[in-house]
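Quick one: structure tokens for this chain, please?
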Amino acid sequence: MRLGIRRAVPALAVLAACSIFGTARAADAAAPIEGNIDDAKNKISMCIGCHGIPGYRASFPEVYHVPKIGGQNAAYITAALNAYATGARSHPTMDAIAKSLSEQDIADLAAYYANQK
């Protein structure tokens, strides 16, 4: 019986350590990425062609009113871009653009457009 306890103590110590470090990693992974408005200025060229024109309507794949994103909530922009990237939302142009963006790109663009008037 004593031999079992000697083996159990180190195993419990390892489990405790994994649980502590696993929680720390999960917290890091869940932390939102902070967007950088200045970095976004080099990334907005793909957006302004449609979203930078007041009242713009795209004609592909059908006539579509392009929404204004300047001044929109950053969380909404992030969610929308992630939805296009995963296929939860679909528009041919937005699908392609969103799939090309990194998480940092999305955070930067969201921060930039959230700070527009």
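The chain has two domains: 1-31, 35-114.
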